[in-house]
Design goal:
single chain; about 150 residues; mainly alpha; 1 helix; about 0% strand; rod-shaped
């Protein structure tokens, strides 16, 4: 039995050595994995930092573009406001000129109508005067004819 126990102990001892060797190998593999993991963590951190910097630069660039667009739009709006004021003033001048032209045309027509009425009234007076003169001359002629008849 002692031999058996010794054999078992030897076997346990051999298995312990094999286990120690395998545990050592596992430890080495674990250290290798930890090293790789540390490297990957560092690479990820570096990559994240690069992405963050790129995003920050992109955001800054977009902010600058937005400010440029805002300035451009503001300038366009100001320009269009000036154009609108110029158009408004031009229309105001044109409306005033049309109004003035209409007043002149209306005044000329009124003046022509008034002058025409004045001429008509003067013509009637002259006609009435001429008719009276004709009647007066006809009376004279009649009177002369009667006087001649009475003398003859």
């Amino acid at each position: 039995m002692e031999k058996e126990i010794m054999g078992m102990l030897q076997m346990i001892h051999d298995n312990t050595i094999v286990l120690d060797t395998k545990v050592g190998r596992l430890g080495e593999k674990l250290e290798l994995l930890e090293t790789r993991m540390d490297i990957q963590k560092k690479e990820l951190k570096d990559e994240m930092k690069t992405i963050e910097q790129n995003l920050s630069a992109s955001i800054d660039s977009q902010k600058k573009e937005m400010k440029a667009i805002e300035r451009n739009l503001s300038a366009r709006i100001d320009s269009q406001k000036k154009e609108m004021k110029a158009i408004e003033q031009n229309l105001s001048v044109k409306i005033d000129s049309v109004r003035f032209e209409l007043e002149n045309v209306t005044n000329r027509k009124i003046s022509a109508l008034f002058d025409g009425r004045e001429d008509e009234l003067r013509y009637r007076r002259i006609t009435i005067q001429n008719n009276e003169d004709i009647e007066s001359l006809q009376m004279r002629v009649s009177n002369l004819e009667q006087a001649l008849k009475s003398v003859i």
